[in-house]
Predict the 3D structure of the following.
Amino acid sequence: MFTGIVEEMGVVESREGGRFRFRAPVVSQDVELGASIAVNGCCLTVVDYGDGWWEADVVEESLGRTNLGDLNPGDPVNFERPVRLADRLGGHLVQGHVDGVGVIVSPAPDLEVRTPPSLLRYIVEKGSITVDGCSLTVVTPTEEGFRCAIIPHTTEVTSLARKGPGDRVNLEVDVIAKYTERLLSFANVTADQEG
């Protein structure tokens, strides 16, 4: 479980197929084999590490459903380690399970993202959304996505300032909304069966 508060902007050091090596001096400080680290909001498992770097294998499913397949050596990425039970939840509950890939229409600080149509129902004014691992508040839902106001600090410490129109970003919608929708669909089926 993550919060969407990016700890470090690192870089893709190398890539061979689905094996990525990331340069990340901060998040690699207490890394261990099998640990989870969110990369652009996608939860990955540490399979090897060393001084200031760590590696992960990204399977075809993840490459196809996220923007990780677009990454090349030298590209900046956002990192977050999982939340500890003693930590404050500064963002919102984030699973690191990307729901879809959006496309930037206009860049930060007035970020506008076009989303897959299947995600539009989860986007509400003042609701939470994760964009490339960054917990953001929706200012305005649009017919094709949403707008967020990005504060200067976020542009300084994340890769969002380096993204422009046409760039793809990973999106994770609010998990509580997804569970609520699923529960209500079963409640409606049960009511129909009883009625």
In short: Residues 100-181 form a domain with the Elongation Factor Tu (Ef-tu); domain 3 fold (CATH 2.40.30.20). Residues 94 and 175 are 7 Å apart (CA to CA).
